[in-house]
Amino acid sequence: xxxxxxxxxxxxxxxxxxxxxxxxxxxxxxxxxxxxxxxxxxxxxxxxxxxxxxxxxxxxxxxxxxxxxxxxxxxxxxxxxxxxxxxxxxxxxxxxxxxxxxxxxxxxxxxxxxxxx
Amino acid sequence: xxxxxxxxxxxxxxxxxxxxxxxxxxxxxxxxxxxxxxxxxxxxxxxxxxxxxxxxxxxxxxxxxxxxxxxxxxxxxxxxxxxxxxxxxxxxxxxxxxxxxxxxxxxxxxx
Lengths: 117, 111
Known about the structure:
The structure holds two protein chains of two kinds. By secondary structure, chain A is mainly β.
């Protein structure tokens, strides 16, 4: 049973460029969330996708956008890269939440390490 | 701001129980306590969660105080592979993925 897979594992980009990161959720999961993790800090929520729509969004600018495909996989796009965008980008998958049961635990991939120079 | 408070670091001897505390004094009645850990260069890994009662699984035990304002994660027989950053998070029962993560506790297991 494949877990969450992310690609690429590492990426180096120049300021002003654009980047696309990819995520395949764990088998059976339909919801994908993206997080940004700076060195030495906890993950910060970027946004969540379910049924191919952005459902919730954290405090990130519009330069960060995403997409979810019919097979539940997802992409994170970042435009006009800044040095401060250098971080580990994590994808997490889960089941759609149901108010009658505890929130489904998130399953994380190992992330994409983005370096902006 | 994170809704939980954890010590920045802890040490534990291999084979002993590791007890990791977490304060969540503003927790509401429908918020669960979740624990994750992150081993270097990997994504966070789910450990355990609870609402009111103590919970145990194959990885750990979770003890929640009666007033729910704090909890303790217990790794009963710590091994070197348990060295990681441990995150305590509170999470609403209904749809809310905006988890607020603090900096966690860096647990170092020493031989």
